[in-house]
Design a protein that fits this description.
The chain is about 40% helix and about 15% strand. It has 7 helices and 7 strands; from the N terminus they run βαβαβαβαβαβαβα. A 7-stranded parallel β-sheet has the order 4-3-2-1-5-6-7.
């Protein structure tokens, strides 16, 4: 059972409000499923909406924030716990360390950087948990097409499609997390080049 989920999301206040609404709904859905939210600690944009949605539904929220962002007063002051780390790299790894699963909401370059790193870690069996993309307004369609092209062009194996799942609505996330295909350390064999012609 998933007890804590790391959520990658954005702080933009200028995107379509539908993305903030989906983030708030996800926070509430996770709270109702007794899944603690672990996220980047911000107070605005989808970050703030996610935390506020979870808190309003009685959930627990832990934020992880780099020191320079805390100095800029970007941290959410109403969450249960806010950990301060030295830099962005520590933030990302601490969020993963605290979590049993990863959920990605629509976001910018930071969100994509986090998402692609955790997919890479899973490919190398350094991370084994579920990865779920919440495809609000088909936001991740292009990203999913890019990953599919990686497989078609033999830069990844067909089995790598099992590393992530996509849902259209936050209401589908909890069920998706709890029905995820197993991924074990044996998956490292799919990342190695065993013989000429095998996908990397």
């Amino acid at each position: 059972m998933i007890q804590r989920a790391c959520v990658f999301c954005a702080s933009s206040q200028h995107c379509d409000p539908a993305y903030h609404a989906a983030a708030r709904q996800l926070g509430a859905e996770l709270a109702h499923a007794n899944i603690e939210v672990v996220y980047g600690g911000g107070a605005v944009g989808s970050m703030g909406s996610l935390a506020d949605g979870a808190l309003a539904a009685g959930g627990r929220v832990t934020g992880v924030l780099p020191r320079f962002m805390q100095e800029l007063e970007w941290g959410h002051t109403g969450i249960d716990s806010l950990e301060i780390v030295d830099n962005m790299h520590q933030r990302k790894y601490r969020m993963l360390e605290l979590s049993d699963a990863v959920i990605a909401l629509p976001g910018g370059c930071g969100t994509f950087e986090e998402l692609f790193e955790v997919i890479t870690l899973k490919r190398l069996a350094r991370y084994l948990g579920p990865i779920v993309l919440v495809n609000t307004r088909s936001y991740f369609d292009v990203c999913i097409a890019l990953l599919q092209q990686c497989i078609e062009k033999r830069f990844m194996n067909e089995i790598h499609k099992d590393m992530w799942r996509t849902v259209d609505d936050p209401s589908e996330v909890s069920a998706c997390l709890n029905s995820f295909p197993a991924w074990t350390e044996r998956a490292i064999s799919h990342a190695a080049v065993a013989r000429a012609g095998e996908a990397r």
